[in-house]
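Re: that backbone. Tokens:
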């Protein structure tokens, strides 16, 4: 396929603070990683030491000819205790954002990417209505300090993902905390109780969804009250939800439950961030496992790069706002497979654009091999390898391939 992307189409990479910075010791996830019986395969530790090495990493993004770096700022560093804002932490992020500008890279800032301060989760977190106000207050404070350097903003990363994990049967209905002793121990260590402890992903999924939908709206208002001049939205984890014959009603019910409240909110946003990795098939009685004969990846789901085309079309049709692909990628040790995956995903984006769908950019997840949450460092999503002992970065062939596409602003058969 030969396809030229529209002028101004944005190429970038995406990452999050906890997965790359290292030593996010005041966060609820750090605690959850370190209690006995934890389901984290290994702790995040130094991660990619991006907290100190951000300049080198931003220079690499610029060197690849990419225009955008989607990163997250860490609430647990910025508001280490309730109402106590660290100017030093905010200044750190000012330096990070200024470095982006220095290299001609536009920073797209996510205000929440899975992790929260311990005090927040200990005191109800994402299962308490106060959570929405607390989050909005932090967003406002951060925007006052950083807003002039932000070129695009995402309030919350994938607020639908906890319920998604429960609907596809990975986490129990009602939340893993109801069954897992390690969450009870984490709660105890921060002076909370299992019931009260409201860390993202581990608690009551439906409650979390509703508090997060409210938090997004309040955060949007708070951020816009400080600065209204950068595009602001949220990002959703979206699979290409396919119904096998008879599964249509189930698929549609799941979509309504999972994405519904967020798609509704996004209609008033400046864009919707689509994050897609694979497809999910639905039968009459619920989720179906990978189809026989379809290869799977280390994450357990199908290798299905065409999913992105379906989710971009769906999100655009449902919201009628511009779409940015704020994450898409593959965890694999086979870099040729990565190139194949991204090429096929981009061909889908090209078909959307050819049909007039308003897609503004594509951010590959991720620049670096980084901390893949409960799975630790085994899944490698990076365009750039990171030596875990030395932190030395080594670009993979896919980095050069992606850079060529971005520089040409075009896909070609090569
Ligand atoms: C998340 C990332 C994660 C990526 C790959 C997305 O769901 O936003 O934090 O690393 O998928 O699994």
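Recovered sequence:
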């Amino acid at each position: 396929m030969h396809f030229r992307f529209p002028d101004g189409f944005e190429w970038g990479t995406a990452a999050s603070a906890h997965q790359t910075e290292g030593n996010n010791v005041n966060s609820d996830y750090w605690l959850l990683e370190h209690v006995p019986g934890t389901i984290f395969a290994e702790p995040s530790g130094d991660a990619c030491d991006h907290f100190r090495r951000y300049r080198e990493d931003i220079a690499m993004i610029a060197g690849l000819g990419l225009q955008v770096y989607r990163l997250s700022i860490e609430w647990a560093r910025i508001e280490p205790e309730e109402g106590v804002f660290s100017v030093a932490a905010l200044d750190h992020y000012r330096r990070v954002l200024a470095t982006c500008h220095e290299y001609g890279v536009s920073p797209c800032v996510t205000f929440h990417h899975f992790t929260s301060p311990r005090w927040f989760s200990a005191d109800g977190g994402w299962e308490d209505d106060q959570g929405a106000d607390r989050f909005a207050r932090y967003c406002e404070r951060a925007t006052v300090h950083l807003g002039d350097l932000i070129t695009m903003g995402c309030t919350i990363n994938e607020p639908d993902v906890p319920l998604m994990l429960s609907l596809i049967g990975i986490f129990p209905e009602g939340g893993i905390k109801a069954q897992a002793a390690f969450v009870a121990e984490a709660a105890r260590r921060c002076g909370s109780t299992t019931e009260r402890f409201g860390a993202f992903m581990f608690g009551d999924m439906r409650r979390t969804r509703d508090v997060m939908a409210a938090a997004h709206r309040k955060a949007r208002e708070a951020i816009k009250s400080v600065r209204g001049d950068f595009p602001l939205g949220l990002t959703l984890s979206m699979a290409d939800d396919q119904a096998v014959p008879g599964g249509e009603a189930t698929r549609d019910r799941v979509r309504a439950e999972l994405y519904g409240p967020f798609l509704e909110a996004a209609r008033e946003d400046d864009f919707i961030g689509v994050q897609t990795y694979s497809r999910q098939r639905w039968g009459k009685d619920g989720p179906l496992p990978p189809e026989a004969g379809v290869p799977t990846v280390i994450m357990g789901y199908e290798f299905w790069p065409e999913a992105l085309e379906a989710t971009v079309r769906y999100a655009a049709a449902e919201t009628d706002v511009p779409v940015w692909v704020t994450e898409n990628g593959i965890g694999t040790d086979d870099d040729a497979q990565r190139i194949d995956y991204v090429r096929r995903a981009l061909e889908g984006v090209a078909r959307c654009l050819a049909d007039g769908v308003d897609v503004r950019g594509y951010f590959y997840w991720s620049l670096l091999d980084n901390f893949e949450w409960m799975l630790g460092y085994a899944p490698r999503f990076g365009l750039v390898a990171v030596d875990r002992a030395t932190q030395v970065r080594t670009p993979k062939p896919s980095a050069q391939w992606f850079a060529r596409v971005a520089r040409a602003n075009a896909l070609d058969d090569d």
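The longest strand covers residues 106-112. The chain has a mean pLDDT of 97.
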